[in-house]
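Newbie here. two chains, one complex. Structure please?
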Amino acid sequence: MLKGKVSFAVFLGFFLFPSLSYGAHILEPLETEITSTPPRGQFFLQVLYGFLRTENGERVDEHFLPIEIEFGLGLKTQLNLEAETLIAEKENGHTEERGVEEVAIGIKHRFLDESDFIPEMAFEIEFAPVTELGDGQAVSGTLIFSKFIGRWFVVHANLGYGFERKEDGEKEFVNTVFYRAAVAFRAVPDRFFLIAELTSEHMFIEDGPTVDRVIVIPESILVPFERKPLAVKFGFPLGITDGSETPDFGVVGGVSVLF
Amino acid sequence: MRSICIILCLLFVICFSNPSFPHRIEGEITPVLERMEVILGLIEAGDKELAFREAQEVFEDFHYHDFSRVEEGLKTIAVRMDREFGTNLGKQLEDSFSKKDPELLRKTIKTLGLLLMVERFKFVESKLGSFSKSELKDFKKHFWRGRNYFTLLFEPALAKYNPAEEVRLERLLDKMLYSLEDRKLKDFYRARIELVDRINRDFGLSLPTTLLNEKQ
């Protein structure tokens, strides 16, 4: 009983603890990139945990942990370091694979600020020396748009191209065109967001089939503190396309913080 | 189950009782600035009576916790700003009280806040060419004291009604901070002029044209 009360007090204390920092960058949706960058000299850290289930003849469950660190270089530029760990990929309940799924470094620069009718624009270049649990490398470029629509909505959109080289016994080259879009409803301005996100990837595999992967993610972002730049995010990815590359459903949740 | 409901209700109250925003406050918040924020919040909430009662508390110079220290009240600040910037805020403040006009009180407090911010930034500007690296920390403190006026008096309304403008002004203030760190006086000055002009327009304030068309 006492333990319960202490936990409750610590929990409340944690929520009430004031801080002296800020951040709008923490409001980035789960998948879609946004044009804003962390303030100069500050870090943005996002740690998520995700679970995806795909049933296509057999049941495949993926548990993964993407971690993203960004560093503000100036008013408009940031450096990225991203790593995704595959905690376990289970086929019919048996663990098949685990390890570092991907490591990527990149740079993002915002080259146009928002005006009345024109959205903000940024460009991001990424190099991933490790993909496919160490069997591949990739480069990608993404054009990013962000725009406030009135006082209640924010829209973000990404358009990108990626090239991946895989070597697992034999060499394989994959060209990917991808787009992402997120519409955020500012339910409580700067404190609670409801977001609908769409991510779409179209992979053109050399001498192989074209793979389409379209996912919608209803999600929400909660900023629990008044003066602490920390956001709690959770979403529920739902696969739209058929095939083993698209999950049927999943859960993703985590926190992002600016420091 | 009941405890979970209580915890969820408490969390909801804590998170949303003040629909504010996660923005940066650094350094000292003066008691009068704290009261100015409360008064604006009460006017926004439509509680005219309480807003004037709060304003009355800080109208004249006052003591705040420490009885050996006298804090400047709204009237003293208005007189000082009138002298410094050629405004007519002292009379405007008294008119708002005699007419019990919350709109006039809101406008006067916002103008006072903006001028207090400009005062801080002008002080930083006056020293920008001459301070040593070791003094940078102190000047950043002055900058943040100025920026806190924006964060507490202007940003909540912008976050609610014009978020795109909020982002623009936040970035202008970031630009000023980086100009201060890099000792770029011209950039600091230009960003300050643009910031003041934008706030003046966004909130329908009537700053004297001498302040808006100021030459470096």
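Moderator note: The longest helix of chain B spans residues 102-127. The two ends of chain B are 65 Å apart (CA to CA). Thread marked as resolved.
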